Amino acid sequence: MAKFVRTSKYRHVFAAPPRKEAVWDGVKLTKNAWDANFVSVNPSYVAIAWLVGGGGAVGIIDVNNVCKLDKVPLVTGHKGAVLDLEFNPFHDNLLATVSEDCYAKIWQIPNDFQGTLEQEAQLLKGHQRKVGNVAWNPIADNIIATGGTDYAVKVWDVSTGQEKYNLTGHGGIIQSLSWSYDGSTLTTFCKDKKVRVFDPRTGAIGGEAVAHQGVKGGRALWLGKHDKILSVGMGATSERQYFIFDAKNMAQPLIGPVNIDNSAGILMPFYDEDSDLLFLAGKGDGNIRYFELEFAGEKPEVFFVSQYGSNSSTAACGFMPKRGCDVNTNEIVRLFRVVETRLEPLSFKVPRKSELFQEDIFPDCRSDEPALTAEQWLAGENSKPKTKSLQGGFVKSEKTAVAFTKADDATDDLSEHDLKKENAELKKRVAYLEAEIAKLNAKLT
Asked: How far is 149 from 57, CA to CA, in rounded Å?
């Protein structure tokens, strides 16, 4: 009997090991044990959580200049280790970082950046414990979400530094944040083993589901244009697995649990919304599996495509936006992974004989222009993202620099109520720090 072969444009997607001259050497990746990607990428820069003697730092690398990393420009200013970072989707020079020092900070990277950048463009303060997750809204300009170990998710207007919404209802540490395709809802994965969907502008929980039962961390990721959510994590017997949920009805998973393997490393998921390809990179191993998702029926179907295999383990990984891919070589996805002291770009391509622009594998992708202003989004407006053709290569949009008004620069005096509230928050902060010091002293003795 003849074997059925599924028809797919992406059945032969592959990535060759990068050439030595395409690899950066000299990376000093943070040794922090927090579960995060520790790498963020855009068409201008690669940002990596950097190992320094004290406090937290981020190394900024020119993505278009491969070299030996001797003197890397550093973003410093956090008093604790940097736990997560992400570039702004509309402004390549804006970077958000969150840290053990309980703050989120926005950095404006100068042109031809050298040396160190110590002064942030904006400070976001409000979390009572360390902040472990950050995610820019993909539709609205200057809107960002942060998740902390104080069990809270906060949504901010970074242009003013003001906290706009505080989302509660988690029963543990927030381990991941992901915005929906249109930026109207958020999904979170929490240490209480639940995936939740929030409407951040009302604070309402639209749905929640129990997911992975393992003791290690998990993540939840919105699957592009589809109202579906992927979660990855560990099963009760430590097998790596995934679920897929319907965001509108989370009572039962559509798929899962589907076991992948028994490796110990956390899975880092990346989703290409234009091709519906899912990439699962294992932290601590050299395999990157990729799957194609089809959403024709009531339930999505997941088809294994192939895997990139290496004897060197992945310590951190980042995903280039589609506007940064090379359409001339039919590159549909580019990942950047840290291996020991090296930063390796992995270019996933669709083999084609024609040298013409391939419209079928390069639909119009997300533009670098926001569809909404912060004011419009905060007022309740929704929109699909602006898109742009990749034919001839992506052309950057002209835009003005973001203007920041720091909350500390406000001239309004605090009311008696505000002063009491601030005093209570400071007392909580002091009590937490005293408890942490007591734990450290106990370990030392």
From this structure: 20
Can you point out the beta strands (E) in 94-251? 94-99, 103-108, 116-117, 122-125, 131-136, 143-148, 153-157, 162-167, 174-179, 186-190, 194-199, 204-210, 219-222, 228-234, 240-246
How far is the C-alpha of 371 from the C-alpha of 386, rounded, in Å?
6
Beta-carbon contacts of 179 under 8 Å, excluding residues fewer than 6 positions away, are 135, 136, 137, 138, 139, 145, 185, 186, 222
Calculate Rg over the CA atoms of the chain: 22
For every one of its 445 residues, what pLDDT tens digit does the chain have, with 9 covering 90 and above? 445 567 889 999 999 999 999 999 999 999 999 999 999 999 999 999 999 988 899 999 999 999 999 999 999 999 999 999 999 999 999 999 999 999 999 999 999 899 999 999 999 999 999 999 999 999 999 999 999 999 999 999 999 999 999 999 999 999 999 999 999 999 999 999 999 999 999 999 999 999 999 988 899 999 999 999 999 999 999 899 999 999 999 999 999 899 999 888 899 999 999 999 999 999 989 999 999 999 988 899 999 999 999 999 999 999 999 999 999 999 999 999 999 999 999 999 999 988 889 999 999 999 999 999 999 999 999 999 999 999 988 888 887 788 898 866 444 445 566 677 778 878 888 888 888 888 878 877 7
Alpha-carbon distance of 56 to 32, in angstroms, equals 10
| C-beta neighbour count of 82 within 10 angstroms | 30
Direct distance between the N- and C-terminal alpha carbons of the chain, in angstroms, rounded to an integer: 71
pTM of structure:
0.89
Q: Give CA–CA dist 445/443, Å, rounded.
A: 5
Which runs of consecutive H residues, i.e. helices, occur in 43-84? none
Cβ 394 vs Cβ 43: under 8 Å: yes
Judged by DSSP in three states, 417 sits in: helix
**DSSP E strands, 262-330:** 267-272, 277-282, 288-294, 301-308, 316-319
The C-alpha atoms of residue 249 and residue 298 are separated, in whole angstroms, by 12
Burial of 225-258, coded b for 16+ CB within 10 Å and e otherwise, reads ebbbbbbbbbeeeebbbbbbbbbeebeebebbbe
What is the distance of C-alpha 166 from the center of its chain?
20
Residue 395 · residue 43 · CB < 8 Å: no
